[in-house]
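Exercise 7b. Backbone tokens:
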């Protein structure tokens, strides 16, 4: 019995004393030499993570951290963060990060990574992540469908084309910030490349208003993907636009259209045409902005038009 107790103590001591390897010296320095640990959840760091002052971070020290503030530390790589498995909040804004993977930090609730150079962000299976902000980065697509996302800021991402917000609890507070608006939850301002935002059928899209959303399609379709490049680059002309009755269209390259869908700015399907010719009748539509979706075997192509 004493032998087993001794082995248990030995293994526990080994794990607790195991030093974590960090590939970025600036990240390690921030953990050791700055007040990066927010002990009382007041948004300010009260101590460093090196509690035994040996200039190393042991696994036991990493496990003791629940809120970490490492903003403005010239960090390029967060390798080693996967050992902080009890982490609930991370603020790594104003650094030089290009890639972040939080798959091992699955109890995190708050993540701020604004003002970096991030192109790839892996946020799979983070059901507790509700507050997320990644403004001013170089992200091309965001998949938050396996998170608990409720509010955040995606603004000033010039390369951002697609956001998947399916399976979340956004039922009353998605807002575009524009002059005169009072936004509270999700911000997309400064994303000129944004084409598609995927949502659930029960989302309350009444809060999407103002000029910015006219360039974006909100879709409740189960297929949350952008069109293939070859089809999306096929130029289509809509005329007249604005339209009163008959909307005509012509493609630069020959294409076989199987279906046309008309969506309002809330992402709701309002009309559907199977095997259309070169025009569709829209006299029964209410006035306003709409998106027309062309579906072919090559993919989908979406354009906007105005109904008078």
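Sequence design result:
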């Amino acid at each position: 019995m004493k032998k087993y107790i001794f082995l248990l103590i030995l293994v526990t001591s080994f794990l607790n004393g195991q030093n974590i390897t960090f590939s970025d010296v600036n990240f390690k320095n921030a953990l050791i030499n700055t007040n990066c640990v927010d002990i009382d959840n007041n948004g300010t760091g009260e101590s460093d993570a090196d509690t035994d002052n040996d200039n190393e971070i042991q696994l036991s020290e990493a496990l003791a951290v629940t809120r970490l503030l490492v903003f403005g530390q010239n960090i390029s790589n967060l390798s080693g963060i996967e050992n902080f498995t009890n982490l609930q909040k991370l603020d790594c804004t104003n650094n030089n990060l290009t890639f972040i993977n939080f798959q091992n930090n699955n109890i995190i609730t708050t993540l701020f990574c604004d003002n970096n150079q991030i192109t790839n962000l892996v946020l799979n299976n983070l059901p507790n992540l509700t507050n997320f902000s990644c403004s001013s980065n170089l992200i091309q697509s965001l998949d938050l469908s396996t998170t608990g996302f409720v509010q955040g800021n995606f603004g000033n991402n010039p390369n951002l084309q697609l956001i998947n917000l399916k399976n979340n609890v956004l039922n009353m507070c998605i807002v575009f910030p524009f002059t005169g608006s009072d936004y509270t939850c999700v911000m997309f301002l400064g994303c000129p490349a944004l084409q598609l935002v995927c949502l659930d059928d029960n989302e309350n899209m009444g809060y999407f208003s103002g000029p910015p959303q006219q360039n974006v399609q909100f879709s409740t379709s189960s297929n949350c993907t952008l069109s293939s490049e070859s089809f999306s680059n096929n130029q289509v002309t809509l005329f007249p636009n604005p339209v009163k009755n008959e909307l005509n269209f012509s493609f630069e390259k020959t294409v076989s259209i199987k279906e046309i869908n008309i969506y309002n700015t809330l992402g709701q399907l309002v009309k559907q045409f199977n095997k259309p010719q070169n025009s569709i009748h829209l006299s029964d539509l209410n006035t306003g902005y709409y998106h027309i979706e062309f579906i072919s075997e090559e993919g989908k192509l979406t354009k906007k038009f105005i109904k008078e």
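Instructor comment: The helical segments are 2-16, 25-33, 59-63, 229-232. The chain is about 10% helix and 25% strand.
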